[in-house]
Design a protein that fits this description.
Length: about 120
C-alpha cells in the first residue's frame, strides 16, 4: 500500500511565499507522475501542478509564473514552491501520485491534505 504525507501548509499574507512537500512511501515500482490539487471551500477540486518522473510539468493557468513544482525521484518526494500568493489560492492542497506497484498494477493515491490560507 502507498501513503502520501503532505507538509508545509500554513498562513501567509498576500504576496508571500510558502513551500509544500509530499513524500510517498510503500510499495512503489515506479512513479508515473505526482502533483498537487487544491479545493477551496464550496469549490471543486482542481489540478494545480503535476510533474512526471522524467521532469515534464503542467500547471493550472491561474498559477503559471507563480508556482513551481519539482521532485526528488530518489526520495519519492514532490515539492510545490508557491510565490506571490493571492487570497484565491486559499484552499486545502492535496498531494496526488500515479504509480506502478507490484505486477505493474497502476494505481492512484491521495494525501490527507494540508491547509493553505492567504490573508488579504
Amino acid at each position: 500500500q502507498v501513503q502520501l504525507v503532505e507538509s508545509g501548509g500554513g498562513l501567509v499574507q498576500t504576496g508571500g511565499s510558502l513551500s509544500l512537500s509530499c513524500a510517498a512511501s510503500g510499495t512503489i515500482i515506479s512513479i508515473v507522475h505526482m502533483g498537487w490539487y487544491r479545493q477551496g471551500t464550496g469549490k471543486q477540486r482542481e489540478l494545480v501542478a503535476r510533474i512526471t518522473s522524467g521532469g515534464s510539468t503542467n500547471y493550472a493557468d491561474s498559477v503559471k509564473g507563480r508556482f513551481t513544482i519539482s521532485r526528488d525521484n530518489a526520495k519519492n518526494t514532490v515539492y510545490l514552491q508557491m510565490n506571490s500568493l493571492k487570497p484565491e489560492d486559499t484552499a486545502v492542497y492535496y498531494c496526488n501520485a500515479e504509480i506502478y506497484g507490484l505486477g505493474l498494477k497502476r494505481s492512484n493515491h491521495w494525501g490527507q491534505g494540508t491547509q493553505v490560507t492567504v490573508s488579504s
